[in-house]
Amino acid sequence: MGDKSTSTAIGRGNGHLQIVVNGVSRISLLHNVLHVLSFAFSLVSVSALAREGLKVQFNCDSEKILRDEDTVATGTRIGGLYSLETSSVQNHSAALA
User: Fold this and answer.
1) What is the band of 91 on the pLDDT scale with cuts at 50, 70, 90?
2) What 3-state DSSP class applies to 46?
């Protein structure tokens, strides 16, 4: 973390995230998800996405995640984090780290 503190993951598994692309909502499966109770919001690892064969493009105010040339997720920058456009059941959003 930015302040060199640590948090403990209490579990690991697969998780579903409802992502919105161009107004269309679809479910994506995330692998090796860590459950960390002390986090106020969810984080998605850019390096983990790259290991899965995805590309992440950033500009000054938005991001786009691509599989081959197809856009699979988009989002906007809020403060210092890029927030994915989601509509999950629990109304959480995921930030890219």
Assistant:
1) very low
2) helix
Please write down the long-range contacts of 6-11, taking CB distance under 8 Å and 24 or more positions apart: 7/36, 7/38, 7/39, 8/36, 8/38, 9/34, 9/35, 9/36, 10/35, 10/36, 10/37, 11/35
Residue 10 CA to residue 50 CA, distance in Å, equals: 25
pTM of the model: 0.75
- Per the DSSP assignment, residues forming a β-bridge with 28 are 17
pLDDT for 16 equals 82
Alpha-carbon radius of gyration of the chain: 13
Query: Could you tell me the maximum CA-CA distance found in the chain, to the nearest angstrom?
Result: 38
Q: Average pLDDT, stretch 39-65? A: 90
